[in-house]
Amino acid sequence: MLDFVNRWLRCVMVAAICTTFAGNGVEAQETRQWELLDTIGDPQARHEAAFIECDDRFFLLGGRGVKPVDIYDPKTRTWTQGARSPVEIHHFQPVVYNHQILVVGAMTGNYPKENALDKVLIYDPKLDQWKWGAEIPEDRRRGGAGAAVHGDDLYLVSGIQNGHWDGWVTWLDRLDLKTQTWESLADAPRARDHFQCAFIEDKLYVAGGRRSSGVTKQVFDLTIPEVDVYDLQTGTWNTLDEQSNLPIPRAGCFSFAIGRDFFVAGGESTIQREAHAEVQRLDTVTNQWSTDSKFAVGRHGTGVIVWNDALYTCAGSGGRGGGPELDSTEMLELNSEANEGSE
Length: 343
Hints:
Elements: H1 2-18, E1 32-33, E2 35-36, E3 49-54, E4 57-62, E5 68-73, E6 78-84, E7 95-97, E8 100-103, E9 107-108, E10 115-116, E11 119-124, E12 129-135, E13 146-150, E14 153-157, E15 160-162, E16 166-168, E17 172-176, E18 181-184, E19 196-200, E20 203-207, E21 228-231, E22 236-239, E23 254-258, E24 261-265, E25 278-283, E26 288-294, E27 304-307, E28 310-314, E29 329-333
Parallel strand pairs: 1-26
Antiparallel strand pairs: 2-29, 3-4, 4-5, 5-6, 7-8, 8-11, 9-10, 11-12, 13-14, 14-17, 15-16, 17-18, 19-20, 20-21, 21-22, 23-24, 24-25, 25-26, 27-28, 28-29
């Protein structure tokens, strides 16, 4: 793992030389570009879905409508199909625990007043089977929330109670995955939905998202620039200084962490009709952002996987809102020196 992180940091240092921050008015000379993969088969086109790795295979789950699981083998670049989910599931960040994929904080039903799932839904990749897990307390149910696992605990943060209409919440809840019991923790500094989160050591980083407000006809408008951080050791929240705000506020984006770096990729906003292609990196030591790379095709409503010195994404929507739905797969090699320097 240490060798992997060292190779990644070397790559990041080169990218930082070629990339400038959004606020200084200078065009980047070169930005690393993701590669569209030629795969055997394709996943089913979908958005508001989830993409996650479990035991060296990748799983594309959910999306609008009742969908099968699409399964990708990165060693053979082959897509196959698994079982359909028992209900429609969308707008969630999946997690892996004990070799199973957990869906929590998801929506079901039709736009704009979708319902929140009342239970955790579990997919077993080995058996290609779905089952229901712990019940979510009735007064804490929501969709479009961020989810992350730390040890034997699942953390569920923020979200929206009433689909895309209203009911934004600041809640932080912890599910003990051994005892299947819930605990309410300190509220986040602000409400948000349509985002993802990630742990870096004992700190949970929350960035991106919006307050989807169909009730005021502002479904896409109310994006959140601030970065909020929850410290497990102190049980308290902190908001990074304004200069550490997300450079391009957007929602429907995907987050992940490598070493000390936190990433926000893709997304949708009102500043452009196309989905965003930027993958932006926050150095959590300096709290400075840079543009790390760009997708070949901008997308929102899916995820990014870190596996074997590479990043992967697939599916999602290529534009703001519901389309066009994508079935393409992309990869970025983390230890590639092909993009180092410029002429």
